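Journal club prep — side note

Before the paper discussion, L.F. wants everyone to see what a predicted structure for a comparable chain looks like in token form. Sequence:
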Amino acid sequence: MSMLSTDYIKPIDIEMLTTGLQFPEGPAFTADGTLWAVELKGERLVCYKNGQLRKYTTGGAPNGIAIDKQDSIWFCDAGQNAVRKFEPANERIMTIINEVESQSLAKPNDLAFDSMGNLVFTCPGDSRTVPDGYACALLKDGTVKKITSGKYFPNGLAFTPDGRSLVMAETYRHRLWKGDWDAATATWYNEYVWCNIGGPDGPGGPDGMAFDVDGHLYVAVFGTGEIRVADNNGNIIKRISLPGKRPTNCAFDPSGKLGLVVTEAETGSLLSIKEHE
């Protein structure tokens, strides 16, 4: 375990839970505290429990993860242009959706459930230089619709703790969008650039993200080796330096045992970050 410090805040502990993963992404926790992630380039789901690692082959290019109330693992698959679901009890994998408006999904990336069980996911496709990335919602009745478009690589996303707003990363513009969220109709409206969070000089930028209990947003900024934290007004209040320049996503352990878990692609690791007063 190493002791690192941030620019202007309390000290932190960073522990590598495991290494050797092939481009880890999408951490999320089930109700019993089990940690799940993916190996995007290893074509696998990863389960970490009681210090033990187990892997399940999925094929494709699994990316972001969201877990439903039945503890099923929903994941974006950029290789198969689909949103898929894995049921741990029987190890069954199902493709849930693979198109919107009669067209194939464009390399789904990250996803999150809202308070009513609608699933929102980003589809960046190849929108690094052309603003044709979009995001969709899968409604409870099975309807799929676009909720925003015209973005340069829409990527990570998260609902605010009260569920009333949605924040989404536009990676190749180094910024975060925020808008009001109507869960009854799965509609995102009044969206605006909320935070210019920055990024590296080269390719990369804001990726996956997670809110803490105080409403502060922790964002993995790919290419910088940092988690950057925005307050409720979109101001950067904290930077956490990481062992590795390519953090991809993060999630808080509801039990508090692991703190903030970060997937880091350069070192192929799952990191546990605990802050101290």
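L.F.'s comment for the group: The mean pLDDT is 94. Keep this in mind when we get to the figures.
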